[in-house]
């Protein structure tokens, strides 16, 4: 039985030492996780290429037969050299003729033709060295008025799309990416007056999309703010 004059025991405060350890641990994770994940992905990718390329080489030509050990990454080196040689040959007259002949054979195969054309189109889109790219980042109202989204202006709409659209001005082709994967999205056509161009670069706009609005271009880091205040 207690009385009103008895003092209740005060719960002991948690040591601040454990809070400091927790903060240090989380800070360490922030530093280690990106580096470790990058190294793991690169190591896995190199191993995957080695596992694909090296079995195609006859045993007597395997690098392991000459150096005595299986060095990770030799398959990548062989793949790069082979790819450069194929590209060099393909740019020549004989190489172009061989490619046209091989494609003519592939076009006669119903199923293979569809697979080859799709893979070729994707490869040309991703790897081809062309000058076509997004022009500028922009703001558009999507999916309805007063809701704003980041977009990338690709080109002016041409041909039938621009001719048959019932607008008072020319249309712009705008790619609206999704978060956090900016490689997927929607191709939309907007009247020029409805597109607000941004001063930020394409890279900064992509960072803003990938980070879901957590990383803004021109945002100062804590270290930069401390230096500025000194």
Summarize the structure.
By secondary structure, the protein is an alpha+beta fold.
Offer a few descriptive terms:
230 residues; alpha+beta; SH3 type barrels; 5-stranded antiparallel β-sheet; flat
Strands in their spatial order, largest beta sheet: 4-3-2-1-5
> H/E element string?
HHHHHEEHEEEHH
Indicate the structural class: alpha+beta
CATH class of the domain at 136-210: Mainly Beta
Q: Summarize the biggest pleated sheet.
A: 5 strands, antiparallel
Helix content: 40-55%
CATH topology description of the domain at 136-210: SH3 type barrels
The name of the CATH architecture of the domain at 136-210 is: Roll
Beta-strand share of residues: 5-15%
What is the tally of helical segments? 8
How far apart, in Å, are the first and last alpha carbons? 61 Å
Textual characterization of the structure:
The protein has 230 residues and is of the alpha+beta class. The chain has a domain of 75 residues: SH3 type barrels (Roll), CATH 2.30.30. 50% of the residues lie in helices and 13% in strands. It is built from eight helices and five strands, in the order αααααββαβββαα. The chain has a five-stranded antiparallel beta sheet with strand order 4-3-2-1-5, with helices on one face. Helix 1 packs across helix 3. The termini are far apart. The model has no long low-confidence stretch (mean pLDDT 81).
């Amino acid at each position: 039985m207690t009385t009103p004059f008895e003092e209740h025991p005060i719960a002991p405060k948690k040591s601040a030492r454990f809070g400091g350890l927790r903060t240090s641990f989380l800070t360490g994770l922030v530093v280690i996780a990106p580096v470790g994940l990058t190294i793991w992905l690169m190591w896995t990718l190199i191993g995957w290429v080695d596992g694909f390329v090296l079995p195609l080489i006859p045993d007597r030509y395997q690098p392991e037969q000459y150096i005595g050990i299986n060095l990770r990454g030799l398959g990548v080196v062989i793949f790069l050299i082979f790819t450069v040689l194929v590209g060099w040959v393909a740019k020549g007259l004989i190489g172009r003729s061989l490619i046209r002949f091989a494609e003519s054979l592939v076009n006669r195969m119903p199923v293979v033709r569809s697979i080859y054309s799709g893979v070729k189109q994707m490869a040309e889109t991703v790897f081809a060295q062309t000058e076509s790219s997004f022009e500028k980042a922009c703001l558009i109202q999507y999916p309805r008025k007063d809701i704003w989204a980041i977009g990338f202006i690709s080109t002016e709409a041409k041909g039938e799309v621009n001719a048959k659209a019932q607008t008072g001005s020319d249309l712009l082709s705008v790619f609206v990416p999704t978060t956090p994967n900016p490689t997927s999205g929607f191709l939309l056509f907007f009247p020029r007056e409805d597109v607000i161009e941004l001063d930020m670069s394409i890279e900064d706009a992509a960072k803003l999309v990938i980070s879901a609005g957590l990383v803004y271009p021109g945002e100062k880091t804590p270290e930069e703010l401390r230096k500025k205040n000194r």
